[in-house]
Amino acid sequence: MSAPPTPPILLASSSPQRLAIMAQLGLPFEVVAHRYDETTDDPVVHAVGKARSVLEQAGDRPVLGVDTEVICNGRVYGKPESAQEAELMLDSLSGRTHEVVSGLALITPAWEEVHRETTRVTFRHLTPRDLSHYVAYGEWEGRAGGYAIQGLGASLVERIMGDYLNVVGLPAGLLVRVLSRRFPGLYGFG
């Protein structure tokens, strides 16, 4: 007799990066569009809001909400709205260390696990040519901080301390720890 299939995690995100990381981890999941409006700069608040906004659709399945921000010297770098704004963001991060902070909320009707994960990223000193080349590539669009470390954005980075996948968009190490503690063996961990 075989075991029943593992219930999919409801992912309250349509981020291609998060979907790819969930697939990379071999996790069964379904994407559900969240109904949450981001009104603060706190990624933990956003992660909880996204997850709670779809909880009534979950039944007994866990819901995962994630949000990521780039922060440098107290300034939150959101998603640039233009190439010029992206270039200014990247220039201000040039030669500096910033934090990529993610909120992660894994919730069910019975409990909530809410966490914050921080990865420190140091950019090399970027020349005007570096900046114009990267911005012209277009990878900055829709990216917190104006870059994608998993693409050409890797060329901007000198050093990273922490979870690389957190910078991509989902703190995978943290998620695995939470799943192994809450669901020992069910999702292949613990």
The gist of it:
The protein is of the alpha/beta class.
Walkthrough of the structure:
There is one protein chain. By secondary structure, the chain is of the alpha/beta class. It has 6 helices and 7 strands. The longest helix is centred in the first third of the chain and has 11 residues, at 43-53. The model has no long low-confidence stretch (mean pLDDT 94).
Which shape, going by the Cα principal axes?
elongated
Count of alpha/pi helices: 6
Number of strands: 7
**Average pLDDT rating:** 94
CA distance, first residue to last residue: 23 Å
Largest sheet: 7 strands, mixed
Estimated helix fraction: 25-40%
Structural class: alpha/beta
Sum up the structure in keywords.
190 residues, 7 strands, single chain, seven-stranded mixed beta sheet, alpha/beta
Secondary structure elements and pairings:
Blueprint: E1 9-11, H1 16-24, E2 29-31, H2 43-53, E3 63-72, E4 75-77, H3 83-93, E5 97-107, E6 112-123, H4 128-137, E7 157-161, H5 164-168, H6 172-182
Parallel strand pairs: 1-2, 1-3
Antiparallel strand pairs: 3-4, 3-5, 5-6, 6-7
Helix pairs in contact: 3-4
